[in-house]
Amino acid sequence: MEYIFTIQSEHEIEKAAKEFLPLLHQHKVVAFYGEMGVGKTTFIKGLCRVMGVTGAVTSPSFALVNEYSADNDTVIYHFDFYRLKNVVEVFDMGYEDYFFSDHICLIEWPEKVANVLPDNRLDVTIIENPDGSRTIRVKE
Fold first, then answer.
1. Which of 74, 87, 89, 131 could form a disulfide with 70 if both were Cys (CB 3.0 to 4.6 A apart)?
2. 44-60 per-position pLDDT tens digit
3. Any idea what the Cα angle at residue 81 is, between residues 52 and 46, rounded to 5°?
4. What is the four-CA torsion angle of 22, 108, 14, 101, rounded to 10 degrees?
């Protein structure tokens, strides 16, 4: 199944995140695709706010993974594999403990670890439209 969300401005991010949220009940791993600067981290920040994360949500560019606590003791892992040199690094970090847990995993630059992504995930592609709006395509 495919879902499409359109965001006209940053003010609509949390609204779109609320519409997206029910999809996380069946899919704990979410792979975010899109060009640099398209808004992957911005959407993840909005999603985390909607889920009740009160602390700072930042891209884990150098740490590879950040952990956040949300409402109802929900644990969210936020990955950014942009700087990953090779897939061996995810083996070294114990990716299985994250991806196959019952916690939410939000992954930026998943194409760098395509061979280890679980099948039961959401693939989210964010596209910048000519008018500056964003189209978010979600595939189960």
1. 74
2. 999 999 999 998 898 88
3. 25
4. 40
